[in-house]
Batch of 2 targets.
Target 1
Amino acid sequence: MATVKKKIKTIRVDADKCNGCRGCEIICSAFHAEPKYSSINPARSRIRVISHRLKDIWLPVFAGEYAPSECAGRDIYVIDGKEYDECGFCRAACPSRDLFKEPDSGLPLKCDMCEGEEKPLCVTWCLNDVLKYEEREAEVEEEEKKPEELEIGLESLADKYGLPKLVDAVARMSKKG
Ligand code: SF4
Ligand code: SF4
C-alpha cells in the first residue's frame, strides 16, 4: 500500500497534575455550541474528566470513534493498586452509556482538535499544564476515505430509530423547509 506524509496531532495528558477543575470541559462545550460560545454544557464537551473522588483520581478522556454496538470486552484498570470500573476510561460513544453523546439528539461526539483554531482550546484553558499539544510528521499508509461527521451522525440515528423512520423524518423536514 502507498504511504503518504501526514501531520499527526497529539495531546499529551499528564494526568497526575489534573485537579478536576473542568475548565477543559467548559471551553470545549462553549466552542462547539451553536452559535459558537452561546452556551456552556459539559455534557456537550468532547473531553470529559472521569472522576473518582474517593479513589483520588481525575482523568481527562477525549471522545474517540463512534461505536454502533457494544463491544464484547470489558476493561478493568488498576492504577496505584486501585481498581476502576469497566468501561470507565473508554473513549467511544456507544449504546451502553450516555457519555460522549449530544444530550438533546443523542448524536455521537468526537474530538476534532478544535478544527480551525491554531491550538486546541482545552490545552490553552488548562491552567495546570495537564494537556500539552504536540505535532509531528509521520509516514503513514494511505487511508481509505473515512466517513464524515454528518455520515456518522446519520448512521447513529438510523441505528437508534431505524432507517424508514429516519427517511420519513427527513422527508417531513424538507417539506417544512
Ligand atoms: S482544565 Fe486541566 S486541570 Fe482542569 S479538569 Fe481539565 S485537564 Fe484537569
Ligand atoms: S481539542 Fe478541542 S475538540 Fe478536542 S477536547 Fe479539546 S477543546 Fe474539545
Target 2
Amino acid sequence: MRESIGILWRNWRFCNHNNMECRELTQRKDELQENLGFLEKVKEKKEFSMLLDSLVLRVSKKAKEDVKGTRALLRKYFTVFLTNKLLNGKLAPEEMLDKHISSKNRDYQKLYERILNPSETVIDLGAGVNGFSYSLMPLHTKYVAIEATGQLVVLMNDYFKKNKFDSRAVHLDVFDLDEVANIIKNQKKPRIVLMFNIIDALEFFEKDYSKKLLIKIKELLSSGERIIISFPTQSLSGKTKFHTTRKWLMDFLEENFSIVDTFEENGEKFIVLEK
Ligand SMILES: C[S@@+](CC[C@H](N)C(=O)[O-])C[C@H]1O[C@@H](n2cnc3c(N)ncnc32)[C@H](O)[C@@H]1O
C-alpha cells in the first residue's frame, strides 16, 4: 500500500484534472491517504506495529473503522497471544511454546509422532510460535510458517537462522489466497499443510473463507499429501468447555475430503485430511 500511494500520487499529479479518469484517481488517492492515516493511528501502539496493513484494514471494516474497536479486535484475534516475555526473544524454544496461549497445552512430541513423517515439507498457516517446535519434528522436515504477526515472524526466522534449520517464516496474510497458493505450489513434495486453531479467526473476518482456502489447497495437493486442521474443544484459557460440534465444518470436510484420522488431545481436536 505504501508503494501504491507513491504511484497514485505521481499519476494524479500529471493527470488532466478535468477528465473523468483523473477524478477517479483523485478519489482513490484520497481514500488511500485516509487509510494510511488510520493505519498509522492504529499502529502507534507497539503491539500492533508489525501487523500487515491489509489485515488491519480488513479488521477495521468489522469495527466500522473505529480506531479503538479495531484495536480491540486485533487484540482478540492476533496479539492476545503475545506477552512481553515471549516477544523479548530471550526465552528457550520450549519456553516460547509454553508462553503462547495456543501452544502451551500441546504435547508436540506425541502430536508430531502421530501426524508427521520424515522428509516432508510442512506449511503452517497462522503458525503462531509453532516454528519453535522444529527440533521435535521428524528428520529432514522442511518447515514454512505463514504468520500475520511480524514480531513472531522475526523471532522464528532468527531462531531458524541461528540453528541453521531448513525453515523460514513468511509475513503474509492467509487471506492473500494467490500468494498462499504460490508458496504451497513451490514447496518440495510430499507436503503437509497445518491449520491449527486458525479457522475461527478466518471465519470471523469472512464467513466460509476457510472452505474456500481448503478447496484451493486440495486442488494443489497430490494424492497422499495431507491437511491437518485443529480447533479448541475448550476455551484457550482452559476454563470453559465448548459444546459446539462445528457441524458446518464437519459436513463440509466429509463431503469434500477423505478424513483419515481424528483425535482429541488436551482440549484440541485434530482432523487429518487427504484429497
Ligand atoms: C490461535 S493462534 C494459533 C497459532 C498456531 N497455529 C497454534 O495453533 O499454536 C492464531 C494465529 O494465527 C495468526 N493469524 C490469524 N489470522 C491470520 C491471517 N489472516 N493471516 C496470517 N496469520 C493469521 C495469528 O496472528 C495467530 O498467531
